[in-house]
Amino acid sequence: MLVVIGCGNLNRCDDAAGVRVVQHLREQFGAQLPPGVKLFDAGTGGMEVMFQARGATALIVVDACRSGSDAGAIFRLPGTEIDTAHVPGYSLHDFRWDHAVHAGRRIFGADFPDDLTVYLIEAGSLQLGTELTAPVARAVDEVCAHVAQSIRDRQAATSP
Question: What CATH superfamily classification does 2-158 receive?
């Protein structure tokens, strides 16, 4: 099973990039989403990533980032680069998806996907609001195209 997880806050402009990717994929595939593919909007709940990924053979995570690059820059990271241990805090909101990947690998072992790809989209604005900035909206479309192709490739590989 391929699980595609979008992360972010729909009320913080470009922070919603990952969630928007999942929304667009749902619109694009509709009822034609291939069996063995699951789209999940994790919002800001990092813990959900761990549980939604359990049992998957492949995982794609999409989120916004702030690295200092130009708004709309896309970073594609292999899962081997993602393994951030969680330092306990006072809020469940500080348990991010990268912490969930770290914990999921340790808790679920072989039942957690080794095949992990992460797309990060550089945010331009994290202000209150529901609209993406133009460069991030273009990046969301580009990431959607890449993920949709991954879904089609997976479908072709599993079709008789």
Answer: HybD-like (3.40.50.1450)
